[in-house]
Amino acid sequence: MKTFRHNKRNTRTRGSVTIFLSISFTLLLSLIVYTIESCHLDAMVARSEAVTYISLDSLFGQYCLPLFEKFGLFCLNEQGLDLKSELTKYAEENCKPPAFLLTNSHSFLRLNTENVDITKVEYITDTDGELFSEQICDYISYLKMSDLAKALMDDASTEYPDAFKDDENGNLDLSLDNIDTGGLIAYANKIESSNSENSSADNEVSREQSDTSNIDAETFEDSISDSIGHIIKNGLLSFIVNDPSKVSSNSVDKATLPSVTCQLSQDGVNASYGYYKDHADATFKKACVCEYVENTFGSYTNPDINSKLNYSMEYVIYGSDSDDVNFINCCLQLIALRTGLNLVHILTDKNKCNALEQIASIAESLPIVRTIAKYTIMAIWATAEAILDIRDLVSGKSVPLIKTSDQWNLSLEGLKDFSKTTTSKNAGTTGLSYERYLQMLMLLQNNISVYYRTMDLIQMDICANYNEDFRLSKCVTSIEASIEYRIPFILLPRSENYTSNGYFSYR
């Protein structure tokens, strides 16, 4: 009996140990499986996020190449392209495991695409042109830096200081101790002396353009009336250009252009009337777009021969569908601008003011009438001078913003016989060019008009040279997508769905 009880006790002990070891092994195995599956799940979630963004990047790899190469705009042309199916194709392709791993059905990185949904698409013409202006601002910043670098590299005559030259070992030495300050000063003085010589030459020409303000008051009033009537009768265009028949009369149908087809938000409508939430930001963006227009498109003095409208800058300012209408209206605005600037000069020039006072006092006796006559003659004088200025601008000359007495063209004596044969004495070497004055007019326009008319020019160019069915309103600049993945477990007979949200934008 003792032996039997002893054996029974040992059997119970061994059974308890077996159960304990089984439970321990099961818990340990469960912990191992849980750890493996948790690591696998985290890895697959990270991979699904990567697949989402890689797929969106791949989708935008089909961006519109002519739009990027010619105009610096990064957009995906949606025409003829199913965004959802394309994104699904890229997602499924990127879900495949690398070739060096096991087959797809047994791969540790196996991932299946369940559903693809595009939740938001933004086009470059959306948000009242803000997306467009942001890309232009980025483009201009890089363009200016590249132009500066190119100018430095192309200037073979520039003698660089020793600090910017390679040392004897072929390394670039940028230490300040090696800068030849004497050489820099001499180089700067050389540039300054060159500019001084040019200025002296300009001054010699200006001295010959002395103002003669003496005129017979009795015949002055009738002479001015005849001159102004002659201008109105023969047309302003004949006074501005030598051959009005050479002015382009090209026109375009605006029915499909962004400025006509795009809808503005309430903020955009307010902005079209000049109401902005952030005036500083709006002014900066418009300045960048104006600079972009001057660098990219042409004008009357540098026409776009291959474009539907030859005078692109004038179109941005006035917005008519015809070249000649845009040109003549821009000239009228420039005349108004130059008239105001010329009035500033007359009011600050004592000789001209005294001459006007003398003529007005002789012509009329009443003080009020004399004052009216003085300022009337002053306005006519400034306008006639402005017409000469615009004639110089469209012929390729430069005109100073605020003139000096030496730079003034038309005397009161010459005003009496003013006609389209009146010649300008302006040498055209100092001041602002025609394009720079057009930039000033563009800055006076509201932002919405400048943005969308610039988009019109881009669409017209692409339609004329690449694809006549191209529409800028179908060019995608950002996409938000939601992709649902099925993640199969490697040790458990089940799977889990995970949704990854991705956002691609040029910004």
Structure description:
With 507 residues, this protein is of the alpha+beta class. The protein has helices at 2-60, 65-71, 83-95, 130-154, 181-207, 217-234, 236-240, 258-261, 266-272, 279-296, 312-318, 323-348, 350-363, 367-394, 412-416, 434-444, 447-465, and strands spanning 76-77, 112-123, 475-488, 495-505. It folds into two domains: 2-110 and 477-505, no CATH class; 214-465, no CATH class. The protein is built from 17 helices and four strands. Strands 1, 2, 3 and 4 form a four-stranded antiparallel sheet that branches. The longest helix has 59 residues, at 2-60. Mean pLDDT is 78; it is low at 160-166, 170-192 and 198-218.
Give a short synopsis of this structure:
This protein is α+β, with helices and mostly antiparallel strands and 507 residues long. It is 58% helix and 8% strand.
Characteristic key phrases:
507 residues, alpha+beta, 2 domains, four-stranded antiparallel β-sheet, 4 strands, 58% helix, elongated
List the helices and strands and how they pair.
Elements: H1 2-60, H2 65-71, E1 76-77, H3 83-95, E2 112-123, H4 130-154, H5 181-207, H6 217-234, H7 236-240, H8 258-261, H9 266-272, H10 279-296, H11 312-318, H12 323-348, H13 350-363, H14 367-394, H15 412-416, H16 434-444, H17 447-465, E3 475-488, E4 495-505
Antiparallel strand pairs: 1-3, 2-3, 3-4
Helix pairs in contact: 1-3, 4-10, 6-13, 10-16, 10-17, 11-12, 11-16, 11-17, 12-14, 13-14
